Amino acid sequence: MPGEQSGSWIGIFSDPWRKLVAIAIAVALWYWLDTQITENRTLRCEIALAEPAHHQLYAEAKRGPVMEILVSGRAFAKQEFRAPLDGDAEVTHVALEFAAAKSVIERIRPGERVWVQPTAAALEQDPPVFEFDHRDLRFRNDELQKAFVRMQPERVEVVLRRKEKLSVRLSHDLLQVMTPTPFADAGFASRLELPRATFDPETIDLVGTGEELDRLKDQLQNARQGDDEGVLFELDLTGFANTAARTASNTLSLTPKWQLTSIVMEPRLVRVRVPLRPDFKSFELEVPAQLVTTTTNLSADEFQSLPPIKVDLWAADPLDAELQGRSEAELQSWVRQNLCVLVVLSENANRGQEIVLEGRLVFLRDETIKEGVHYRAEMLPITLIPQSH
User: Rounded to two decimals, what is the model's pTM?
Assistant: First the structure.
């Protein structure tokens, strides 16, 4: 008998077909045993609100595992997640632990979805507050549901804030404009005609919690009164350095301070267009001055003749083209024929005293040239010296 048994084993291994069958059985047995080995896996999920009708798409959009709280995001502006068993610590993620056969664990996807469906009664509270633990979690199939072991933290409290709206009519005094650095374009900021800015649309809704909107109303009032700290919106025009364009345009955004809150703009896309004055070129001029008095007790003859006044002039077309390329003598000749600094003494003053007044640049031949559009001018205050000095 021992010889016969030995011969049968030899027959098995000498027959190639029997050998293949034996190898296949061994591989299948190994694979079956391997899949029955229990493995553990922990999945770290971000907590987020999700629309009940669209929550299946949320995890794929986030490209990561997500713990979804199924409530209407259109109804709530802000949410807080806390761990009541850990001193109400803020929670942004939960750790989910699974224990199951290796074949089940391997089927957990990188963008796995887990969700909690709060009751209607919980959402009707003011503010809506509810808690959930591992018993409330739902998974995409029974296999994962059975494999789920525990959640950390063990309980999570959800506090929601209902949305409210504040209608705001947009204007330039609510803007904080980001302009090119002086190194990139020193004159750009002076070209902006912010009071003439246009908005599309002109009125928007700011959506947030009641508490946030109350703070925002106070800031709105401060901005309307000229407080720079009250601006709500940011307009980035840094890309318009050294431009010859007559309009700078971009979309509006909340300032970083308000971006940290739950407040959002509706509509989110607001286009702002700001007219730009032409690019100015600078000239240093010596301009004749003329004193005019409108007082009853003093006359221009009582003061020494005014010398030419030094004027720093920034000119845009067509004035720029008129001045460019002239020699010094030609430029001064043009100035004497076309410009004057007018000094007006309009208040009674004591005879024999020096008087300090502001001068105003006047174009003698072309009244269509407007300050702020075609030119800007700066000069020092002018001192009137009595003849007796």
Answer: 0.53
Considering only CA atoms, give the Rg of the chain: 40
Listed residue (315, 253, 252) closest to 279, CA to CA: 315
CA distance 258 to 80: 18
Antiparallel, parallel or unpaired: β 38-50 and 93-101:
antiparallel
The two three-digit tokens of residue 336, written as one number: 């004497």
Within 10 angstroms of residue 77's Cβ, the number of other Cβ atoms is: 22
363, burial (CB in 10 Å: exposed 0-12, middle 13-18, buried 19+) = middle
Cis-peptide, bond into residue 308, ω within 30° of zero: no
- Report residue 369's pLDDT band, with 50, 70 and 90 as the boundaries: confident
Contact 201, 267 (CB under 8 A): yes
Place of tokens 């699974």: 98
Alpha-carbon gap, residue 139 to 124, rounded angstroms: 25
The Cα–Cα gap between 126 and 76 comes to 12
Of the chain, the percentage scoring pLDDT greater than 90 comes to 17
Q: Give me the count of residues in the chain.
A: 389
The pLDDT mean for the chain works out to 81
Torsion 360-363-367-368 (CA) sign: negative
